[in-house]
Amino acid sequence: MTTPADSELLTMDGWPGGVNNRVRETEQVVERDERKIPSSQFLRKALNVDFTAEGHPLRRKGYTLTQAGYAHSVWGSDQIGLICWVLGGSLYVGADVDTASAVASVNRYLPMSYVLVNDTIYYSNGRQLGEIYYDGTIRNWGTPIPPTPTVSGPATQAAQGYGRTRQVTATYIDSYGRESGAAEPAFVGAGGDFQVTLPMPLPPGVSEARIYVAQTNSEILYHAQTMVTVGTITVHDSDVGRGRELETLNRLPPVAGQLVTHMNGRVYIARNDYVSFSEALRYDLFRPSQGIYTFPDNVTLLEEAHDGLYVGTERGVVFIRGSDPYDVQQIHVSPYAPVAGTAARVPGEKFGLAVDDLPVWWGKDGAMVVGLPEGQLRQLTRDRLAVPEYGAGAVTIREQNGMSHIVSSLRSGGGEDAMGAVDTVVATVRRNGISLNT
Asked: Tens digit of pLDDT for each residue in 421-432?
């Protein structure tokens, strides 16, 4: 783009083509969306301004320091009216910055990932995890598993060899009524009453322990007794086989991961190079022997897109298609690794789709994409904007003054402008015959 002489006036009626640092100086017309746009209607670089749909620049609002210190992992939800962030080794939660308070001690450097399910926020940073209820209170994500109960009663071995046996296990019930996974079963001989012992007092946040017993030589366990304060109880023959069947055998509480998301009634957690998922509608119980996907590198992107999951690593992005996590198809959709931390949720209506929201993220090829259903990626910037090869960042959507913007903050991971294109145009603004800048 040519630069006007000092004696000339460059008149622009906005930049309806938006920002474009890929157009060459020698190009006169650029085709986009079946329209031919003159190169003069593109802007290569702007500082502290926003643009309307017509391309008119507006001065960007400034910012005010509200809390000093190393802050990161800011996240918010209009649905429950809460915002969260990490500052100085604490997780802050509140309706706004002025009323927020520290609710948990966390690693001050590890990025925090959040997902909202109904009225609860689930969070994890790879080492710590928890739940934030809609009123801002915090609670454990998952209930601890009891130790194997100690049993005494009929012997499990007769003079002629092993006789008939009964399995005995226990679960904890937390103060919210959620049941833990089951302890490793103990065994007691068939016939007659027996005693069961668990350590007392119960762990913090646990309201009771339930004892489950299987009938002779059976693997189906039924609720037989409940323990609250007394560490040893007697189980009678008449108690066995009459209560509710145990549903949490071989289930474990979640393990902290670097990313969390939610799809079709399950929470998914990425920990290092694998992704695990919860039981259906029981977000505190996981089945590690079955509910897991493994990848060749650490997972840096984990986002749902209506009918599947986008999972990104250093080797690119795959789409795990299917609503049943045990019956899915894995499709390689992009060779470009995502930039860590740059995934955000954008309303589906912005892309002409009748879905609540869809993920967008920056790739290490310098382009932003949106992950559509069925594993389809749509390029958002490749035809007009290139950025350097950033190593990490953050993205959010902002709506104000009738404008919708996807706002990115990127941290460099390589050389300056390793992938960008730079050009400059000098403009003079005059008002009432007076030059305001040169």
From this structure: 333 334 444 555
